[in-house]
Amino acid sequence: MAKAVIIIVIAAAAAVAGSAVLSLSPADDDFAEMVVVKLKWTDQAQFAGIYTADQKEYYLDGGMTVIIEPFSFESTSIEDVVSGAADFGVTGADELLVAQSNGADVRALAVIYQQSPLVAMALKESGITEPQDFVGKTFGAPGGESEFIIRSMLASQGIDYGSDVTVVPMEFDISPLLDGDLDVMAAYLIDGPLIAEDRGYETVVIHPAEYGVSFYGDVLFTSNDLIQDDPELVRKFVGATLAGWEYALENVDESVDHTLIYVEDNVGIAEFGYQQRILQDSVQLIRPDPGAEIGQMSHDRWTESYELLLNYGIIDSELDVGESYTMEFLN
What we know:
The protein is of the alpha/beta class. The chain is built from 13 helices and ten strands. It is globular and about 60 Å long.
């Protein structure tokens, strides 16, 4: 993995130079700073821009040695940034707003996915095609983002999440759906249907955005403490990450190669074609307007997201939406 490679390279170079510190920038007194970014899910092309920024040495050019930590069930990216275990994280806009309403001192820096990939997915043979079909059915939800978005979608249609629908906690594994243990489940548009298709099943996806529930997807964020204490580090990290994403979208095949360096050698998952389809399907969610710059966000979208969560009872406290994000580092 990248962490091991970086450590080996640094150790070898330090031994040759007779020093414990390796200079990674043109200035002799400007040394690489170790930075940890925690992802919201396991390694896959959903994060191709970060891998590309690492492999193209955009981070190193900014004087940073970046450790990319994938999702773990032990702690979320928000929990790790709040605790100081990570400097930056990737999460959903809905999860960030909920965490902020509960006191998490974090702030969004850039939006990668302008539209969340999260959808509800059912087998085509089930006949489920819209939220009303969920009533009396069993729905699989891993919690967090999947609960907030699907719960909002159902509430928008007058359906109570948890009473009209039987909610079953689960991981992001489609096997229970394919085995008939679930009627419908939360899934990611960029990979859930692909996995089902590879196993020989046709699926139907229900898009929350079609029912007025539209959230930003992957959001890059950090703590307010880091913004205050080291704004230059934040600026360099955001700039390098967005540059990585720009390159990734313009060079899909090369960026898939970058991604495969980090992906564990699971059957199917670590195949070029699978990761290529994830990245290709992500393009429209990341850049719905071909001329738009990656990372941009608006106060109106953040406000709409907050009001959705507030109106449907997912957030029950007042929140200054203007403090939820900053566009200071996007220029």
